[in-house]
Amino acid sequence: MHRGESPAFLLVRKMAASSAQPQFLVQYLVLRKDLSRAPFSWPAGALVAQACHAATAALHIHRDHPHTEAYLRDLGRMRKVVLEAPDENTLKELAETLQQKNVDHMLWLEQPENIATCIALRPYPKEEVNQYLKKFRLFK
């Protein structure tokens, strides 16, 4: 530490430097894997459509949030991560956890059957939400 620089000054300088770095925003989607297998056997296109519905709805609902605005300002740098949930119960449990932790998301329900198919979070810095998603693997 240089002479004359108090710990408080150094902390403020460190915070200012870290906020100057670009913040990478990610939109996470969690899609039900069991829908691709028997007895459901949904085609790949139908599953992709569910993820698209959920992602679009989450972006629309949270369009005024600063993270969503920043995410949509630079379309060429959008990042999405699609994870898989083994079944509907797991997906609904995740939705409950996200709601309890005040994580903005959309649980997409396919109509008219009212089937929970996908969760999409609004764009977040991954560090803010990865603790809730770490048990889910990439969708295959």
TrEMBL record:
Instruction: Please give the SUPFAM superfamilies that the UniProt record associates with this protein.
Output: Peptidyl-tRNA hydrolase II
GO molecular function list = peptidyl-tRNA hydrolase activity
- The source's domain of life comes to Eukaryota
Q: Which residues form the signal peptide?
A: none
Q: Matching InterPro entries, A to Z?
A: Pep_tRNA_hydro_II_dom_sf, PTH2, PTRHD1
Write out the catalysed reaction.
Answer: an N-acyl-L-alpha-aminoacyl-tRNA + H2O = an N-acyl-L-amino acid + a tRNA + H(+)
| Entry keywords, A to Z | Hydrolase
On whether Hydrolase is a keyword of this UniProt record, the answer is yes
Name the coiled-coil region(s): none
Enzyme group, top EC level?
hydrolase
According to its UniProt record, the EC number is: 3.1.1.29
Any idea what this protein is called? peptidyl-tRNA hydrolase
Record the organism: Loxodonta africana
Q: Which gene encodes it?
A: PTRHD1
